[in-house]
């Protein structure tokens, strides 16, 4: 993580990140994001704020009952993976109105040309762009607000969010320039670890995603041990053995992906994994990977299953987190309004 970052008005390090409750958690979410969230909380060097971003989820239609379920399940996943709601602030986005308010302000800062370049919108909207929601298009301005409404300085994400974080930086810089302030920090993406881009188990050129129609393409945090083992056994690979050095995987995306997953799960590096398994074929490597994946994921999935049995408790945790989040966000939103010349009722 970069030490010397421009953090606006002398802010402390503050970490913010979010995951959409649209479907369950995948191994990609876990290795690219959630596992890192826990490490940063444990590191203790900064305040950690983690958000289940339900306002983002509704940029595509969500069945209301399914959204409620997915929000609770996602929260359970955060806690089961090691997020401690006492040490980190954990909440769902729609309970803190400041996100949406600052999101509007930022939609007046961001330029249409900037949003037109967003590759995720192009991917998600597909061919029928005219029928996509306005929210899906404006999504990155809300994401910038999620981060900047806390004056967060560091944002742990997977590789696919990099472009959105660059836009967040552009919005902060333009707001500061337009208003002659240094109000918003220019955030630092934290894209680290062996698995910043976990690929589909069926196609090594496609990202592992909760929206892939094939369930065999991904590992879900709710999969049982047999399902995990079966998905890894059936994962696409090539007939060659593992090479002596990492460069030998350059044109073997599926093989490279499994090595990265192994390294991230083991807390190791792809170089070390290749060194350990050099010369072995995938028939030998896959059962080892399956055992490792089950040993890491099964306790999380069991704990998730237990936690979702107590929805009332999850809702209380989210409400408490939202209260703490709002206490940080509201004064920053108030100051934003002051800078823009908006009148507010004087505090009694
Ligand atoms: P989302 O919900 O698609 O994914 C959540 C996090 O998981 C990471 N991720 C992956 N990492 C590695 N390999 C993969 N295959 C993979 N798939 C997903 C994502 O990079 C992300 O870190 N726009 C965000 C949510 C968001 C947000 C924010 C994030 C809203 N506001 C503010 C950070 C800060 C998204 O859709 O992530």
Task: Give me a quick take on this structure.
With 348 residues, the chain is mostly helical.
Please render the helix and strand layout as text.
Elements: E1 14-19, H1 27-43, E2 47-52, H2 54-57, H3 64-81, E3 89-92, H4 98-107, H5 112-116, H6 119-125, H7 134-148, E4 154-156, H8 162-179, E5 188-190, H9 225-234, H10 253-266, H11 270-277, H12 282-307, H13 311-340
Parallel strand pairs: 1-2, 2-3, 4-5
Helix pairs in contact: 3-12, 4-7, 4-13, 7-8, 9-12, 10-11, 10-12
Bound molecules: tryptophanyl-5'AMP.
Poorly predicted runs:
1-11
Number of strands: 5
Rounded Rg: 21 Å
**CATH homologous superfamily (4th level) name of the largest domain:** HUPs
| Cα shape | globular
Give helix and strand order, one letter per element, not per position.
Answer: EHEHHEHHHHEHEHHHHH
Query: How helical, in percent, are the residues?
Result: 40-55%
The average pLDDT score comes to 94
Terminus-to-terminus distance? 42 Å
Bound molecules: tryptophanyl-5'AMP
Q: The biggest beta sheet, please?
A: 3 strands, parallel
Please, could you describe this protein's structure?
The chain has 348 residues and is mostly helical. The protein folds into 2 domains: 14-196 and 310-340, Rossmann fold; 215-306, Tyrosyl-Transfer RNA Synthetase (Orthogonal Bundle), CATH 1.10.240.10. The chain has 13 helices and 5 strands. Strands 1-2-3 form a 3-stranded parallel β-sheet. A two-stranded parallel sheet has the order 4-5. Helix 1 (27-43) links the parallel strand 1 (14-19) and strand 2 (47-52). Helix 4 (98-107) crosses helix 13 (311-340) and helix 9 packs antiparallel against helix 12. The longest helix is centred in the C-terminal third of the chain and has 30 residues, at 311-340. The radius of gyration is 21 Å and the shape is globular. The termini are far apart. Residues 1-11 have low confidence and may be disordered. Residues 16-20, 28-29, 32-33, 53, 56, 143, 146-147, 155, 157-158, 160-161, 164, 196-198, 207-208 line the site of tryptophanyl-5'AMP.
